[in-house]
Amino acid sequence: MLYNTLHNRWLRIVAAVVGELIAAAALNLFIVPLNLYTGGAMGVCQLIRTLLQTYLGLNFGSYDIAGILYFLVNIPILLYGYKYLGQGLVIKTIICTVAFSLFYSIIPIPSAPIVADYLTACLLGGILTGIGSGIVLTCGCSSGGLDVIGLCLSKRGSGFTVGKFSLTFNAFLYTACLILFSPEVAIYSVIYNFFTSMVLDRMHQQNVNVMALIFTKEDENVLGRFIIEKLDRSVTWWTGTGAYTGENVHVLCVCLSKYEIEELLHAVRSIDPHAFVSVQEGARVFGNFPKKLV
Fold first, then answer.
1. What DSSP character marks residue 32?
2. Which CATH number fits domain 208-281: 3.30.70.120, 3.40.50.12780, 1.20.1250.20, 3.10.150.10?
3. 36 φ/ψ angles, rounded to the nearest 5 degrees
4. Which among 154, 245, 165 is positioned nearest to 206, based on CA atoms?
5. Cα–Cα distance between 10 and 144 in angstroms, integer?
6. How far is residue 150's CA from residue 170's CA, in Å, rounded to a whole number?
7. pLDDT band with cut points at 50, 70 and 90 for residue 18
8. Are the beta carbons of 81 and 147 closer than 8 angstroms?
9. Helices (H), the chain
């Protein structure tokens, strides 16, 4: 089920839209009722909305103009991302951005907080938002905003992950909140964003490197060609000897992302159901190892 979803284009888009629904619902149900601010481009839009209402006396009625501002802000960001991410991801980002803006606008905000305790609300909201945003990224899509800039930096080989870049940007955003509003607003907004970023980095499978060792008695060239041609990864193999049987065995070593490991395991099972596979998650990889976004 997971394999079919992650490797079917239309199912990925559907799953990404569901992820946007989860993120928007978590924001409107747990964070907005407490007058806290999410991070990134959406947080900037919420901040601008509040300033327009407070200092210019503008009244937008029951509609939250932050959704419209978020869509407008994404226009120059997507133009920047087109250079590094390509047309396919930009189109999917537009779909996800429209979906998020729509969900953010139509999901009703409770008149009274569902969870009155600030810390509990930040924990629940952060985890759910991180899960929703992580689903979007894992499906090869993007929510727009800082995700696009973070993905561009990752594509260029920067040490920033999407979550780390988000934390750095939000440090400046929440400093502004600290100056403009009460310390409680800034502090609990930071806590919410911290939980979101931590869950997001764990959910973003393309950002997690793994090393796989495959032990097989079948022709190693078949698996080697699959890894090179289908996964576009390099592979090293050698011949070993099983200590128990004394028979020769082929050992293949490959580094790839957690997102790609399901496809590799699927191929291994179809080529050699008796193969032994060892996967080390969180491998630190240096040198010529291109990061892939989709």
1. G
2. 3.30.70.120
3. -95, 170
4. 154
5. 19
6. 13
7. very high
8. no
9. 2-6, 9-26, 40-55, 66-106, 118-138, 146-155, 162-180, 183-203, 220-229, 258-271
- Whose structure tokens read 């495959």? 214
Residue spans of the domains in the chain: they are 2-206, 208-281
CB atoms within 10 A of CB 19: 26
Q: Mutual orientation of helices 118-138 and 9-26 as an angle, nearest 10°?
A: 170
DSSP SS3 for 238: strand
Q: What pLDDT, in 10s, does the model give residues 208-257?
A: 678 889 998 888 888 888 888 888 888 888 998 888 888 889 999 988 87
pLDDT digits 0-9 by tens, 92-105: 888 888 898 888 88
Distance CA 99, CA 95 (A): 6
Q: Is the dihedral of CA 264, 268, 269, 275 positive or negative?
A: negative
Percentage, residues of the chain above pLDDT 90 = 12
**Measured distance CA(191)–CA(173) in Å, rounded:** 13
With bands split at pLDDT 50, 70 and 90, how would you rate the model's confidence at 119? very high
Q: Residue type at 222? A: V
Least confident piece of the model among 9-23, 142-156, 272-286 = 142-156
